[in-house]
């Protein structure tokens, strides 16, 4: 494979990441802004996600409706995501149409209209999106757990925002948020695919360099105190199925503990991809929790996940409780497994196995050009591209003692929230 | 103008770079090498599915497929998965109406492991009782979760109403009572009777030579025989309903109602398929979900999603609109969608609309085959619907040949208001007169 990586920063502060991949006539263009729910204050939760929606509502050059058409005519795909620390926009296009992505994204970095009637129409669309989430028991449980687990940090709010805030946010709030954060010195442009880097950089400079740098006034983010007592959350709702979800405070992505934690998670709940775009697909049937919960028929499924974030966030373990058993029984078995990790070192072979799984996942996810461009920018949001490039080497240095230390440090009862979703008509709930 | 310049003809799979071999026992093998990739993706199917399930044991084909890797003559469940997961490989089985399918992936070095596990699971499953019970509990829980899912329940009821008394109207995973009725012996019998190499298709794409794949297929599956295996069932095409049908699935405590409206669509090999596919794009796919997305989401703000889809199978298809709306907006959404369908069946799409979608279909072809998994799916479709190895190379000109008149013809033929099925699933608002 021919991969050549190039990075630079324009005079206006826009960071550029380029990776040539000449395996298919495709280019993926990602523009990342360092703004997400982390940058929101009470009363304006969900505003980053709403701004993302408004970015599809047109500029004078690309009016609403026209934006979709110009991309779709090429056969390309595009979308956007808002998360805790970032908002990202991508276009994956036939290589000879890439100018379109550059023109469109540089244009809407500054020229989006935020027409008042479009703001109002989008208000109901986003409320509808939230109502779709509310139909899901695990969304409701997750929302309650986050509010309990995180007391002051904005990570406590769902990215989509509270329904109250979605009813009251105004056009002026949205536009101000847009102008405050959509500036080149708060963005990373990542492009991967079938191009020549010098030519690509020239195109990028032509469209992005005239955009002036802005004044970036990031709000200070209140950090949560270390949790000092176990919390319990009970959510009741329709259905027949009980869910148990535990969260523990987890380290940020750019510290050594994060890497050891990913290996621990792989052993406990199975390998999971950190990417939003696949690379996963490895089953977890030999993981410790699958064996102790699902094989023993206390649960019908179990999963876990660690998020790569700027600030400490939450490590979650979710079990779908077996209809013949209770959340309490699952919790006892789960605690036994955590104690096992704390009491005895795992074997060197266990760690080597987790590393091999991670290596396979990286190979799978690297086959896709969209994913390659994703990683270029994503890693910049919380660390740097070196984080991604060194990932496999770093986790190879994780030792059994590291994993034991992580289990002892982070998986403490006083640092967790136990959340249960219990069907309305089921007894129990004396959490 | 339609943009044909985007198509990189030499990047599309064709007879030059697809190796297709029919083994003596009836297995068809397709391989396309991609040496940019350090891994391989496997896909394929056997010609048995829920079409063989009795109504009282619906879900048998599905449970059989899910049980294949739960224990074999040679290894138990944990040993099978330990071998796969230790090297980051995966293999899984599923079942649909006509087929039992499998997918897998591995690093190139682990190719033999993938095939030995596939062959062992297909040929020597033991269906251990404890594993069958464990799976049954998992499926029953999944069905309980399904019963609370507005999207899934709308879809389930829509299929049931659109395809009455037809295998296409039954969910492959069954219902709680039918899954409860299945015995271990049923799985053994189903496997013995219907699993076999005849009409089996196996596709592999990735960093491997075709000869190497053929060697390992021959070594692991080349001597597989099942003289009892029946010929595929030819299903009669379902008939349009004699009158419009309206149904509602009440699910308490839901914030959003899911809506599905639609009709029968063309089967995959029908000459109506491509005009319908392009018409579907104009109606509810292109850009931000086409005309339907424009009126329901962009203009009225009634839904986060409102789009159309065309699903075409061997005997028939379905062509429907889906939307997620607040219960109070359900009637308004239905009215808007009906107006758009009336317009779509009354006047031809504009040249510009059609050309937009044609450009999209042609341009996205290389993107859809960017990954090994994308090419596997493309090759499986070639074989499943007997499209010919040069199908993707001819596809751009076939798409370019569709006209507004041919789209209008299929719109009128299929989207007939007198046989439309409309289904909602969710919590009724206080006044239920419109549902």
Describe the protein in words.
The complex is a heterodimer of chains A (431) and B (435). With 431 residues, chain A is α+β, with helices and mostly antiparallel strands. In chain A, 42% of the residues lie in helices and 19% in strands. Chain A has 16 helices and 11 strands. In chain A, strands 1-2-6-3-5-4 form a 6-stranded mixed sheet, sandwiched between helices. Chain A has a 5-stranded mixed sheet with strand order 7-11-8-10-9, with helices on both faces. Chain A is globular, with a radius of gyration of 23 Å. In chain B, a hairpin with a 4-residue loop joins strand 9 (303-312) and strand 10 (317-325). The longest helix of chain B is centred in the N-terminal third of the chain and has 18 residues, at 129-146. Chain B has helices at 60-67, 77-86, 111-123, 129-146, 150-162, 176-181, 184-194, 210-221, 273-284, 286-299, 330-346, 351-368, 372-384, 391-400, 404-414, and strands spanning 19-22, 28-33, 39-46, 90-95, 100-107, 201-206, 245-250, 257-265, 303-312, 317-325, 421-426. A 6-stranded mixed sheet of chain B has the order 1-2-6-3-5-4, sandwiched between helices. Chains A and B meet through helix 2, helix 4 and helix 12 of A and helix 2, strand 5, helix 4, helix 10 and strand 9 of B.
């Amino acid at each position: 494979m021919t991969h050549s990586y190039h990075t630079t920063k324009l005079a206006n502060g826009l960071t550029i990441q380029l990776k040539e991949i000449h395996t298919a006539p495709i280019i993926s263009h990602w523009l990342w802004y360092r703004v997400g729910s982390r940058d929101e204050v009470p009363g304006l939760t969900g505003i980053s996600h709403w701004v993302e929606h408004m970015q599809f509502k047109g500029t004078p050059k690309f009016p609403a409706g026209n934006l979709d058409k110009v991309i779709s005519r090429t056969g390309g795909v595009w979308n956007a995501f808002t998360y805790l620390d970032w908002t990202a926009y991508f276009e994956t296009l036939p290589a000879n149409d890439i100018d379109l992505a550059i023109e469109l994204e540089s244009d809407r970095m500054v020229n989006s209209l935020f027409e008042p009637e479009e703001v109002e129409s989008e208000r109901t669309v986003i409320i509808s999106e939230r109502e779709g989430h509310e139909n899901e028991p695990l969304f409701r449980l997750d929302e309650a757990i986050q509010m309990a687990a995180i007391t002051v940090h904005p990570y406590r709010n769902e990215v989509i925002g509270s329904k109250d805030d979605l009813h009251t946010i105004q056009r002026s709030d949205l536009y101000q948020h847009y102008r405050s954060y959509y500036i080149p010195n708060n963005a990373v442009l990542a492009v991967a695919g079938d191009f020549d880097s010098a030519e690509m950089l020239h195109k990028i400079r032509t469209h992005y360099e005239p955009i002036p740098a802005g004044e970036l006034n990031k709000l200070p983010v209140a950090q949560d105190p270390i949790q000092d007592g176990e919390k319990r959350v009970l959510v009741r709702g329709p259905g027949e199925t009980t869910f148990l979800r535990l969260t523990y405070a987890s380290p940020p992505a750019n510290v050594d503990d994060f890497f050891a934690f990913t290996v621990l998670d792989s052993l406990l709940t199975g390998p999971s991809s950190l990417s939003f775009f696949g690379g996963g697909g490895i089953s977890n049937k030999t993981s410790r929790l699958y064996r102790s919960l699902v094989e023993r028929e206390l649960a019908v499924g179990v999963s876990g996940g660690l998020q790569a974030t700027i600030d400490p966030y939450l490590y979650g373990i979710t079990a779908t409780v077996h209809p013949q058993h209770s959340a309490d029984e699952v919790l006892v078995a789960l605690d036994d497994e955590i104690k096992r990790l704390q009491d005895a070192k795992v074997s060197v072979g266990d760690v080597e196995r987790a590393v091999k799984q991670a290596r396979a996942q990286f190979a799978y996810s690297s086959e896709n050009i969209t994913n390659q461009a994703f990683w270029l920018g994503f890693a910049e949001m919380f660390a740097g591209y070196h984080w991604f490039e060194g990932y496999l080497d770093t986790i190879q240095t994780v030792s059994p003692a590291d994993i034991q230390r992580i289990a002892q440090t982070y998986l403490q009862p006083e640092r967790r929230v136990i959340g249960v979703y219990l069907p309305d008509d089921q007894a129990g709930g004396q959490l | 103008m339609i943009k044909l310049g985007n198509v990189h003809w030499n990047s599309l799979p064709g007879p030059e770079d697809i190796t297709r071999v029919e083994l003596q026992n009836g297995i068809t093998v397709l391989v396309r090498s991609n040496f940019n990739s350090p891994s391989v993706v496997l896909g394929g199917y056997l010609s048995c599915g829920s079409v063989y399930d009795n109504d009282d044991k619906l879900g048998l084909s599905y449970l059989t497929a899910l049980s294949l890797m739960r224990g074999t003559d040679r290894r138990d469940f944990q040993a099978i998965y330990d071998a796969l997961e230790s090297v980051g490989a995966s293999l899984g089985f599923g079942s649909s109406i006509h087929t039992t399918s499998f997918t897998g992936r591995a690093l190139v070095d682990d190719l033999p492991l993938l095939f030995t596990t596939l062959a062992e699971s297909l040929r020597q499953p033991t269906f251990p009782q404890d594993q069958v019970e464990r799976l049954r509990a998992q499926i029953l829980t999944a069905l309980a979760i399904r019963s609370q899912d507005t999207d899934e329940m709308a879809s389930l009821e829509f299929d049931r109403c659109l395809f009455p008394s037809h295998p296409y109207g039954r969910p492959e995973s069954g219902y709680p009572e039918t899954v409860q009725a299945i015995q271990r012996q049923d799985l053994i019998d189903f496997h013995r009777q219907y699993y076999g190499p005849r009409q089996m298709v196996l596709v592999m794409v990735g960093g491997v030579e075709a000869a190497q794949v053929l060697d390992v297929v021959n070594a692991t599956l080349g001597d597989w025989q099942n003289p009892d295996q029946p010929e595929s069932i030819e299903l009669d095409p379902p008939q349009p309903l004699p009158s419009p049908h309206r149904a509602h699935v009440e699910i308490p405590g839901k914030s959003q109602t899911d809506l599905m409206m639609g009709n029968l669509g063309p089967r995959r090999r029908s000459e109506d398929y491509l005009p319908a596919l392009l018409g579907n794009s104009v109606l509810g796919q292109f850009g931000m979900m086409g005309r339907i997305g424009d009126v329901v989401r962009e203009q009225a703000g009634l839904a986060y999603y409102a789009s159309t889809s065309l699903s075409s199978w061997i005997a028939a298809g379905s062509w429907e609109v889906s939307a997620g709306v607040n219960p109070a907006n359900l009637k308004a959404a239905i009215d808007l969608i009906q107006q758009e369908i009336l317009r779509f069946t009354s006047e031809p799409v504009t040249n510009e609309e059609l050309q937009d979608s044609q450009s999209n279909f042609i341009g996205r072809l290389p993107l859809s085959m960017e990954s090994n998994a994308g090419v596997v799916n493309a090759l499986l479709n070639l074989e499943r619907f007997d499209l010919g190895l040069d199908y993707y190379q001819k596809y751009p000109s076939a798409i370019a040949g569709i006209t507004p008149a041919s789209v209008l013809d299929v719109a009128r033929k299929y989207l007939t208001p007198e046989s439309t099925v409309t289904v909602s699933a969710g919590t009724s608002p206080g006044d239920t007169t419109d549902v």
